[in-house]
């Protein structure tokens, strides 16, 4: 009876595993050449497949929004470079989907026919497929640290509004020293870190700060306007 191959799974807080690879935009040295920038490294199962095509068109049309937040996009599948090039050319020349057409994918797409990078990042999951990478998303900060990991199965396309929201939330937490509550979007109240002592908690509960609301000693929120959030995180370059 065959046993599943052990899957290496980088964790949040780990240094992003390094690799060199050939891409549709030339060779890259990852993540070292992206030092000082955020990076979203994401995998897709295969070129010339419909779900992946819809995803690449969406990412490409949203690339400027990520770039404004000092974030670079890097794609990967276990297909070869010539397959990548032919697929991206087909997307640009032939695909018209949900108002997106003539879409040019300018961010690098990694050739990984040996599956070395996919295995290094835990993108190959034998229970799903032993020949295709799942839809993994890694957020890597300017110091090369993995900050968020999201996995999707082969059959389900990603929510790109959520992928952008995650980046905004991570950058807001870093910039303001706060946390973000469920369904947070820029302009919504943020969570003030829990008080470290009873005295501090009592002081916070009695605070007259109009921007801070305490629902109980452990749960206080703070107002930060949408414009302030966006102008601050867009300056973090």
Briefly say what this structure is.
With 237 residues, this protein is of the alpha+beta class. It folds into two domains: 19-158, Glutaredoxin (3-Layer(aba) Sandwich), CATH 3.40.30.10; 171-235, Antioxidant, Horf6, Chain A, domain2 (Antioxidant, Horf6, Chain A, domain 2), CATH 3.30.1020. 30% of the residues lie in helices and 23% in strands.
What's the helix and strand layout?
Blueprint: E1 19-23, E2 26-30, E3 38-43, H1 50-67, E4 71-77, H2 81-94, E5 96-97, E6 100-101, E7 109-111, H3 116-120, E8 135-140, E9 146-152, H4 160-176, E10 190-192, H5 198-205, E11 212-216, E12 219-222, H6 226-235
Parallel strand pairs: 3-4, 4-7
Antiparallel strand pairs: 1-2, 3-8, 5-6, 8-9, 10-12, 11-12
Give a written overview of the molecule:
- With 237 residues, this protein is an alpha+beta fold.
- The radius of gyration is 20 Å and the shape is elongated.
- It folds into two domains: 19-158, 3-Layer(aba) Sandwich (Glutaredoxin), CATH 3.40.30; 171-235, Antioxidant, Horf6, Chain A, domain 2 (2-Layer Sandwich).
- The protein has six helices and twelve strands.
- It has helices at 50-67, 81-94, 116-120, 160-176, 198-205, 226-235; strands spanning 19-23, 26-30, 38-43, 71-77, 96-97, 100-101, 109-111, 135-140, 146-152, 190-192, 212-216, 219-222.
- The model has no long low-confidence stretch (mean pLDDT 91).
- Helix 1 (50-67) links the parallel strand 3 and strand 4 (71-77).
- The chain has a five-stranded mixed sheet with strand order 7-4-3-8-9, covered by helices on one side. A three-stranded antiparallel sheet has the order 10-12-11, with no helix packed on it. A two-stranded antiparallel sheet has the order 1-2.
